[in-house]
Amino acid sequence: MRLFFVKDFLDLVFPRNCLLCGTSLYDYENNLCTICKGSLPVTSYHLRPMDNDLGDKVKGLSTVGMVMSYLKFTKGGKSQKLLHQLKYRNKPQLAHELGSLYGKILNDHGFGTQWDIIVPVPLHPLKQSRRGYNQSEQFGLGLSVSLSVKLENSLVRGKFTETQTQKSRLERMYNVDDVFELAPRNSITNKSILLVDDVMTTGATLCACANVLLANGANNVDLVTIAAGG
Fold it and tell me: Which residues form the Double zinc ribbon domain (predicted)?
């Protein structure tokens, strides 16, 4: 009885609300209410992972395999609101839940045995210190739980880069050139890797990371993001 009283008190002082619509969450709901979760703009890239418009974006930039994204990005849409929560509202648990949800979809479609490790795109240590977490890592940890695949921080970011938001495709490639390195004492030789990030625009950052992994002996690299635009 006392535990229920404490929980009711905490819910009153610190209400748990859906991060999209703001309604109160039930005990069995985490960050999103059931209605918002069911109305997320989920893509079908997992049905054609080797032949879709995301794969077309990275052609000529890297020799990656499958390219997929959980959500379709639209300006002002639900996916952008979720990404805003991750980057500016200190919601690492949301990224973890999104990873878990997409991991279940991938697992249901036979991807559970595709990869040896999951590798997140790293943040610069200064940026991660300011934010308190790497949203791509949290997304990867959610995928890791659903897919039963270990996450490893196999990459490090050596340079602090300018924001990619207003840059062209070519400028983005130059901006991340020689930015990423293999982490010390990290072997990825002959491993099949799932490289994950929060969002794909031109694919420049993901391809820069994939190229480092492939150059250091990875067998193949596939890409997955939380959201991506067409």
Answer: 9-42
The partner residues of 221 in beta bridges, in order of sequence, read 193
| CA gap 74, 91 in Å, rounded | 20
Count of structural domains, the chain: 2
Do 219 and 199 belong together in one domain? yes
Model pLDDT for residues 145-165, shown as the tens digit of each residue: 999 999 999 999 976 555 545
Mean pLDDT for back-to-back runs of 10 residues, the chain (230 residues)? 49 78 95 97 97 95 97 95 95 98 98 96 93 97 98 88 54 68 94 98 94 97 93
Residues 26, 54 within the same domain = no
120: left (phi over 0), alpha (psi -120 to 50) or beta: beta
**For the domain that residue 76 is a member of, what is the CATH number?**
3.40.50.2020
pLDDT tens per residue, range 21-41 = 999 999 999 999 999 999 999
Q: How far is Cα 219 from Cα 191, in angstroms, rounded to an integer?
A: 5
| 12/53 Cα distance (integer angstroms) | 46
Give the burial class of 85: count Cβ atoms within 10 A of its Cβ; 0-12 exposed, 13-18 middle, 19 or more buried. middle
Q: Are residues 209 and 170 in the same domain?
A: yes
118 three-class SS: strand
Dihedral (Cα; 140, 160, 174, 207), 10-degree rounding: -10
| Residues 84, 89: Cα–Cα separation, whole Å | 7
